[in-house]
Design a protein that fits this description.
single chain; 524 residues; 8-stranded mixed β-sheet; 20 helices; binds adenosine monophosphate
């Protein structure tokens, strides 16, 4: 017996099946409705973006970019791949193969010159150069070329060399890939803002997105390699704290709508380009003094990204971190005023929050306002939303001076928290199961199914005849609310018997009454 491979979803990815998918759709639909009530419009973004977009915005020193990005060999290498395809296609013809090899080597040499070839490929490339030289010399003799082309068996050494070169060409690998599966979407929104000249549009641009993100993290509860986010961004000329407050209000209204209420909102200000660099330097100096007491990761971050030390969850480091200088004592006047006004705005909107001076967020692009929402019931991965202000990011990506603020909600974790809290709403489900028996009743069953579906009900019509008992048993197992019984008696009398499965209550209806009754039930 041959053993067949059992395919499984790739590590860190998963399927969302019905009925869970109904919960996901409801969650996303509620976000659309709430966000649109705040005049946000949906932006649909590509999942693939240039690697450099994330390196420049999120930061090449961050874990997200340096360790966790899924990259693909794309665009920049497409030409090389096409040339390699031509090599394979021309193995029968010594002259065409040699010509294709010449072009392939030219492209490879230029990739090597710009450091895009993996080091291990060096010897393969050298071998290809010798193969090219040899083939070129051999086919320079017109007689040999004609023979080798027309009667390959007369020059097996040429054809062997061609096949060998083709195999070596397949081994060439590239070091710097060009495209990445997006690890987050703020950078993409900014890229799109610039690309479509959106600063020329009236007012602030208020955009939301929904979709999968990809990070090669260690999978665990609430942490996946393909996960889903719902995000919103405001881009424009103003950095008024009222914008920050409105974004937070919208976020909490949404969480309220979906029953995600056991949450805490943390806010902080991490300063801007005028005050943060001095604070970071001060922090670095203080950290250097206690370096020996810190673990390896934090020690390294003293030099690379000292703010990230504040993110540390390591118990032994906590007392040390508590003694470090706090950004709130080092904000410049403008940042201090901005933060004070934000808190005033939050109070005006009756939004509960906690200040957390250690909330610096992992990404490079944040300025001033940062925030995070945590939810109960999730263990260590308890952040369900993160966000902040990123004035200057659009400019960094080559666009005009622009202010920006936004957040990303983690859908996977939010749904886990809603489920753990027992707040799952009752959604849709099967309304009517049509239990028909006898071929004479089949046309009536098909007809009424179509009408009920047109009235917006979810209807299951068994494709094959079944005994009533079996049919009603299946209706029960499928969780239908009603079974509509159509037998020969019903057809003869022009009636339908509707059985409510919860209490077995049974009523007879004519077609018009039946539609009316079920429609009014649906609205209840
Ligand atoms: P971030 O972009 O890192 O600020 O993430 C925003 C939100 O996305 C977090 O608060 C999480 O809820 C969610 N999130 C981030 N990474 C993952 C992951 N690997 N798996 C599931 N959810 C994630």
């Amino acid at each position: 017996m041959s053993e067949r491979k059992q395919f499984r979803a790739i590590k860190g990815t998963r399927d969302i099946l019905p009925p869970d998918s109904a919960l996901w759709n409801w969650f996303e639909q509620t976000a659309r409705e709430v966000f649109e009530s705040y005049n946000f419009g949906e932006i649909r973004l590509p999942i693939l973006e240039e690697v450099d977009l994330f390196a420049r915005s999120v930061g090449s020193d961050t874990d997200i970019v340096s360790k966790e990005m899924f990259t693909l060999e794309l665009r920049a290498f497409q030409e090389i791949y096409d040339l390699r395809g031509q090599l394979t296609d021309s193995v029968e013809s010594p002259v065409r193969f040699t010509g294709s090899l010449f072009q392939f080597l030219r492209a490879i040499d230029s990739a090597r010159a710009s450091d895009r070839l993996s080091r291990e490929s060096g010897s393969a490339v050298n071998q290809l150069h010798s193969a090219y030289k040899e083939l070129n010399e051999r086919i320079a003799d017109d007689r040999v070329l004609a023979e080798a082309t027309e009667r390959p068996e007369t020059h097996p050494e040429i054809h062997d060399r061609i096949r060998q070169a083709e195999a070596i060409a397949m081994e060439v690998r590239f070091s710097r890939e060009a495209a990445a599966l997006r690890p987050e979407a703020t950078a993409s929104v900014c890229r799109a803002y610039i690309e479509h000249n959106m600063q020329a549009l009236p007012g602030n641009q208020k955009l939301y997105y929904i979709g999968p993100m990809f990070r090669r993290e260690r999978p665990q509860k609430g942490r996946y390699r393909q996960f889903y986010q719902i995000g919103a961004e405001v881009l424009g000329q103003s950095d008024a704290p009222a914008i920050d407050a409105e974004v937070l209000e919208m976020l909490l209204v949404f969480f309220n709508h979906v029953g995600l209420t056991r949450t805490t909102l943390y806010v902080n200000s991490i300063g801007d380009k005028n005050c943060r660099p001095q604070y970071v330097e001060l922090l670095r100096e203080e950290l250097r003094k206690v370096k020996d007491k810190l673990k390896e990761d934090s020690q390294r971050r003293i030099e690379t990204n000292p703010l990230r030390v504040l993110d540390s969850k390591i118990p032994e480091e906590q007392p040390i971190i508590e003694t470090l200088p706090r950004i709130s004592d080092h904000l410049c006047d403008d940042c201090r005023a901005h933060f004070a006004k934000l808190k005033e705005e939050l109070n005006l909107r009756r939004i509960d929050y906690k200040e957390n001076w250690r909330l610096v967020r992992g990404l490079d692009y944040y300025t001033r306002t940062t925030f995070e929402v945590t939810a109960e019931g999730l263990g260590s991965q308890n952040a369900v939303c993160g966000g902040g202000r990123y004035d200057g990011l659009v400019e960094l990506l080559g666009g005009p001076p622009t202010k920006g603020i936004g957040f990303a909600i983690g859908t996977d974790r939010s749904i886990l928290s809603i489920e753990e809290g027992g707040n799952v709403p009752k959604l849709g489900g099967l309304a009517v199961y049509i239990a028909w028996m006898g071929q004479a009743s089949y046309p009536t069953a098909v007809n009424i199914a179509k009408k009920l579906r047109a009235a917006g009900l979810s209807v299951e019509l068994p494709p094959e005849e079944m005994k009533f008992k079996k049919s009603l048993g299946l209706a029960d197992k499928l969780g239908a609310r009603y079974a509509l019984i159509i037998g020969e008696d019903e057809v003869a009398l022009g009636t339908f018997t509707l059985k409510r499965l919860a209490d077995s209550d049974q009523k007879k209806f004519a077609e018009g009454e039946l539609l009316e009754y079920l429609e009014s039930e649906r609205r209840r």
